[in-house]
Design brief:
The complex is a heterodimer of chains A (249) and B (167). Helix content of chain A is 67%, strand content 0%. With 249 residues, chain A is an all-alpha fold. Chain A is globular. Chain B has two helices and seven strands, in the order H-E-H-E-E-E-E-E-E. Chain B starts with a helix and ends with a strand. Chain B is globular. Classes of the chains: A mainly alpha (249), B alpha+beta (167).
């Protein structure tokens, strides 16, 4: 089971100018279109740090010159892409913390599944366990790779209550299985993806491979990865059949 | 006599500069993240940036959000959940408490109002105060002094270690 992202999500993933993309979807966003509102929230989140640090791209470039190959080339490419994507949006100086948070709230209110997933994580501790499971099921039912990729962070080991236990929650294997399933369900996990770009630009980890390879080599032991692969396959079957109750019983 | 007065003057300066009473400690709950320590000292938000508490809140929010993300990618995704707090010690040793409002979005970490503290001297270490306890001077250029470290946990003195040193 392999899905593709929505047309707007695909436009966002490959955009070279986020300000122009937001301009082109502004009328849809004003009309309350959830996909368009998702883009506004995502763009704000992606470019926020770049606006906060005016010399960020140049600074990162200097630091990346000291990396060894192939990470150096990967880092410089990610930096160039990010600088280009955010340049005009930053020039508008519109990205205040309040504005970015507001965009997220509007997207969640419109029913965007990515924004709703973020809000669910923020409200986790105040949400009863049964309601949590219901919302998690709805995220999975959306088959939205982006949202499911974010949801993965909620389904690994957690420090805060309540915990969601079950066959696909609570362990590192589960976390990895969901990350891999998200790639199958349309999340851009390619070597040039926003996911890996953000990882590189915020942590200096700039692997040359795709996200699945990063997960295999950095987030899992060989045993965990093998276990996660089995769970990934099982999850995709259950999702394809719509048996969401089995995932969060 | 001139030498003796100089040493005493140095000592007094040292005492006043190095002592850090427990009341000066900033307690935030959660971990302490130091910009000068790895892996944070090579973070893109730290390298070539001199962010401290006097910077605009907008800039600090950007840095705090990135640092929290780096902390999680280093120590585990379950760390620094929503609602948790941590202490950020900037490169200039100024510090403040920060609270996590979102793990998955940026901006996701905000400074706690009123928690900002100016940087201490270069010898000040959070949780530890260094001071010179005693000074004996037998000759103008030869003497002994005692260096003590007080160790604190949650603002309570838990241990003191002293050693005698010669000038």
């Amino acid at each position: 089971m392999v899905s593709v992202p929505t047309p707007l999500q695909a436009s966002y993933d490959t955009a070279t100018n986020l300000a122009a993309l937001l301009d082109s979807t502004q009328s849809q966003a004003d009309a309350g279109n959830a996909d368009a509102l998702r883009l506004a929230a995502a763009a704000g989140s992606e470019c926020f740090s770049s606006q906060a640090f005016a010399n960020r791209a140049a600074s990162f470039r200097r630091g990346a010159e000291r990396f060894s190959e192939p990470e150096r080339s990967v880092a410089l490419r990610h930096n160039d892409v990010q600088e280009q994507r955010c340049h005009d949006l930053i020039a508008q100086k519109a990205l205040t913390p309040a504005m970015v948070r507001d965009a997220l709230d509007r997207a969640a209110a419109a029913g965007d599944m990515v924004a709703s997933t973020i809000k669910l994580d923020e409200q986790w501790a105040d949400t009863p366990a049964n309601e949590l499971k219901e919302k998690l099921r709805s995220i999975v039912a959306s088959r939205d790779g982006e949202a499911i990729g974010l949801m993965a962070t909620m389904l690994g080991p957690r420090e805060e209550e309540p915990t969601v236990n079950g066959p696909f929650a609570g362990t590192q294997d589960d976390y990895i299985a969901w990350l891999l399933a998200a790639c199958d369900l349309g999340r851009d996990c390619s070597a040039s993806s926003r996911l890996l770009r953000e990882l590189c630009l915020t942590t200096n980890r700039c692997p040359p491979g795709d996200y699945r390879e990063y997960v295999r080599t950095n987030l899992a032991t060989p045993q965990q990865f093998q276990s996660a692969l089995v769970k990934e396959k099982t999850l995709l079957g259950i999702i394809a059949d719509g048996r969401f109750q089995e995932i969060f019983p | 006599m001139k030498h003796k007065l100089s040493w005493i003057a140095i000592l007094l300066i040292a005492i006043s500069g190095f002592s850090a009473p427990a009341s000066a400690l900033l307690k935030c709950g959660g971990p302490t993240i130091r910009a000068n320590d790895p892996p944070f000292n090579t973070s893109p938000g730290i390298v070539n940036q001199d962010v401290g508490i006097t910077d605009d809140e907008f800039v600090r929010i950007g840095l705090l959000t990135e640092i929290a993300g780096l902390y999680r990618s280093t120590y585990g995704q379950s760390k620094l959940p929503v609602g948790s707090t941590f202490k950020m010690v900037y490169k200039d040793n100024s510090r403040e408490c920060a609270t996590v409002v979102s793990k998955l979005a940026s901006p996701g970490v905000f400074p706690v109002a009123g928690s900002q503290r100016a940087g201490g001297g270069p010898m000040e270490v959070e949780g530890t105060s260094l001071y010179i306890q005693m000074f004996n001077l037998n000759k103008p250029e030869v003497g002994w002094y005692t260096v003590c470290y007080d160790y604190y946990s949650n603002g309570t003195l838990t241990a003191t270690e002293c050693s005698v040193q010669a000038w």
